[in-house]
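Subject: complex prediction, re-run

Hi both,

The earlier run crashed halfway through, so I resubmitted it with identical inputs.
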Amino acid sequence: MALSVIAVLALANCVASMLRRTIPGAARRTVLIVIVVVLSVLVEQVLTVVAFEVSMLVSVYVGLIVANSVLMGQVASVALHCGPLRALVKGLWSGIGYGVVLIVVAIVRELTGSGTLWGSRVVPQCWYDAGYMNNNVMLLPPAALLIVACVIWIRRARRKGELKN
Amino acid sequence: MKKQGRIYAIVYSGLLILVAVGLLGLVNQWSRPKQQENKANEVRCGILRAARISADGKNVAEVFSTHIKRSYIVNYHGVVADRNPEHAFNACMRLPAIFKAPADRRKLAVFECATPHGIKYIVPVYGCGLWGPIWGYVAFDANGSTIYGAYFAQQSETPGLGAEIEKAAFSSQFEGKDIFSKRGRFESVVICKPGREPRSGSWVHGVSGSTVTSQGVSRMLRESLEPYTQFFRTLSR
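This time it finished cleanly. Structure:
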């Protein structure tokens, strides 16, 4: 999923940047949506060819990349104001950052919700025997929002310290 | 043409959409054969897993052709309606369309699989979970009542909850369960919560924290297996 986001964001930035001088102001948002939708579908199609089992798991979410206002905002704010190469690099970095957050959220949810990492048991059986229980709430969608909020909180707290220095 | 003009915006958007549609069409044409092959392998894997035969993506077609001895389509009355193996397999490739048909007019695919424990009869099942479709394959002993193995799959159930129906811990519970009562009445297998087991009939425990998906599996089994009743009865004779 992280790779899909990186690919879509970097390519969308690059394509939108190449077209930026021709895009009409009245249809700017429509054009950006079309670009991101096309790239999302392309990534989904490629996934079904090269990694069918993965595509079965993430295809629903790849299609929803276009509904992610963070990514759309990134394309609109960066791609339309700089050259294709710079937009591509910025898209790559933003995608990597977004991917890292996705991985952090996934690790926390899997570890606390199932006691596993990448499907392998991490929490020892003796913990369960002693009364430890997996937190099923972490497996529900709202838990991802809570974790993202924590990531933002930590990031802002650290940035506050940097600003003070 | 003025860049800020309305006509420019309409023409530009139209051209962009045409290019987008063309590009997607080309990619679809390029990827379709491989997608179909991947989907076919996934169906083969599912059928084999129901018969407790493991196969990875590379050799699945070979293992499938080795173990599946016959495949055909039966009708609601238990009579073989189509002996073409390809038609039976194609029915599994498009389960949503097949299961839309009324039970008495449905194409009921059957796969005869050679296992170390004899010939098993594998049938597809299809239904609804909490967030989307769920499907699977159930293998039966030659008596047409006892489940030899089951495999379930899903695409959009909650990971760690409803998605656990894919795990062997859930599907292995079905082994040895009968779908007919001792009097020969079709009962299917009921999914229940621990402590709420029915007094009679076959049951298995549902996945903790996924009541709706478990109910979906229960309903899927009942509605998908019921049309096979006559076929299973002919097997038991």
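Chain B has one domain: 45-236.

- K.
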